[in-house]
Amino acid sequence: MTATTKHIFLDKQHPAVWRALNGLGLKVKEAAQEVGMEPKTVELLHVRISQLNGCAYCLDVHVRDAVQAGESPQRLAVLSAWRDTALFTEKERAALALAESITTLPGHSSQEQEEAYAREHLTEEEFSVVSWLVIAMNAFNRVSITSHHPVRKER
After folding, report:
1. pLDDT tens-digit map of 3-19
2. Helix (H) or strand (E) segment spanning residue 76
3. Which numeric CATH code is attached to 22-147?
4. Could you tell me the pTM of the whole model?
């Protein structure tokens, strides 16, 4: 690898900034816990956001975390097609719709529809927490994608 093709791990290059992002992630998880959001729902959102962004590293981490939090392999397997199944609750569907809207930033009318759907099923606190979860996870995805964080083979 030459100097121009060597990957720069942003988290190693500026560890104070990385710690600040991790601090945000921890505060968002605390807020999710305060509004009663289950850890498996938080991880379900992390997985879906990472799927949309194509972040292999974060998918590796958060699929394992989701399973540890009690998420089923079946629901993880069909997560990318969640709209076509009856495996998710209305609240989860609202959170997933909002997560997709914030991640993909669709056109204005689509975004308004997804937000309205989310507002029907989520409290204001839940809407805010889901939004912050998505914002933070998108930042983590971008750090890992830009840094080319490797997925290590399990032993």
Report:
1. 566 899 999 999 999 99
2. helix 73-77
3. 1.20.1290.10
4. 0.94
